[in-house]
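SEVERITY: medium
COMPONENT: batch folding queue
REPORTER: lab tech (J.R.)

DESCRIPTION
The queue accepted two submissions in a row. Attaching both inputs and their returned structure tokens so the on-call engineer can compare them side by side.

ATTACHMENT 1
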Amino acid sequence: MKLSIAFFALPLLLAAQPNAQEIVKKSIQVDNLNAERARNYTMTQRTIERTLDSSGKVKDTETKTVDVLMIRGEPYRKLVAKNDKPLSPDDQRKEEEKMQRERHLGGRRNTPAGLQA
């Protein structure tokens, strides 16, 4: 009797478990959603660096403010201010050019061809 119940219950148990194809499909959907979220992710980061003299007193303070955004799935830090002052128009242009190069070069910068660029 117990064997017949197990025999009839087995197909129900197997049907309730997802197959490998369903697991992979769900994994790809979740990965795509995470990639979309990463593309929309940005934050501002402010770093303070203090230089001390020989007696341990602060001799100099430098701050940098960067926008952190995702480029090709990696965090990219774009400098937006130094010492709590916005960058000059020339420095802004340079930072924008660096970011555009990163967008176009991406992971190729570590390859021999990327090193030539």
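ATTACHMENT 2
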Amino acid sequence: MALIENARLRVGAAEAVATAWNENGIPYCVLRGIEGYPESIGRDLDVLVEKESVGEALTIARATLCGLGYRVGVPVNVVWVRKVLGTRGSGWNDSIALDFFTDLNGGVSVS
């Protein structure tokens, strides 16, 4: 039962982030992690975002997840991808990770 509830919370969190991005004009495309949508999604979503928008997209995702009661972290030592991690408890079952890519070659473009 808890796994089903966690899956629903994760879907709701992803939908809330997508709504916030849409409301703020952030163009994005989910590349991976929504195979079971709308019943469930993976804990890790890969999202393609324009290079010029990735900082704002990250900020909006973090604020949205915080507003939903997630504890949110943004790791800084990940070289090839920007990431937002959110958890509601102590394990992976109730967490969500958003990995931001700015190109389809595997990561965030660095200029």
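NOTES FROM REPORTER
The CA atoms of residues 70 and 106 lie 27 Å apart.
No errors were logged for either attachment.
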